[in-house]
Fold this protein.
Amino acid sequence: MSALLSVASLTKSFGGLRAVRTVSFDVTAESITALIGPNGAGKTTVFNLVSGFLRPDGGRVHFAGANVTGRAPREMAKLGLVRTFQRVQLFADMTVLDNVLTGAHLHTRGGLPAALFRPPATRAERARVETAARRLLERVGLGARASDPAGTLAFGQQRLLEIARALAARPRLLLLDEPAAGLNPAETQRLGALIESVRNEGLSVLFIEHDMNLVMTIAGRVVVLDFGEKIAEGAPDDIQRHPRVLEAYLGVEEPA
């Protein structure tokens, strides 16, 4: 299958620290790919480089056939590459529904004001966008909380809300940074089903995660980083037996 996202030899340093070292991997269309590794492995830095929040020192990012290296996050979102963050970033005083509507502003004629308010020229569009936003809230189990301030949600619910907002932006590739952090087992199960369902609808998902049960259950491919380098890539079953992965996670010595 052709690559929707192609990362080639990405490199990034912060002062004397080389956070990402010539990392390369592809994400194919309609796939779920996990990016894993110990804390400090460089996973979120890779996300920041891919989504335009950081400029790489070297290497290239191609998305949907175009060289998008160093493009701004808003440009990337317009192209269909949308992400969530390790630390939840919501508008706490706005309603749960209005938080989702902010994700749809790239696709409304009046932009963010039209997504949130109701000028006469955009009232019909607002109704359509709101209906879609409510469906997304139902998908993540937050339909009954649509009118509540987002800040009143539990932490795990806030993560699910952030995913609903990202989906409202109509991504082709969804980047999720530790989506299961803070979720209880039932919420994690719902999350896994949600990720698989959006893949089945034609989206691709690249996600960072420490919940290895979730990774091994839903990912079709796993990329492993350690100290900023890619040390393994492959199917979940192969990754679980890979000697360098075992060494990085468990301290198991590689056979001589």
Observations:
- The chain has ten helices and ten strands.
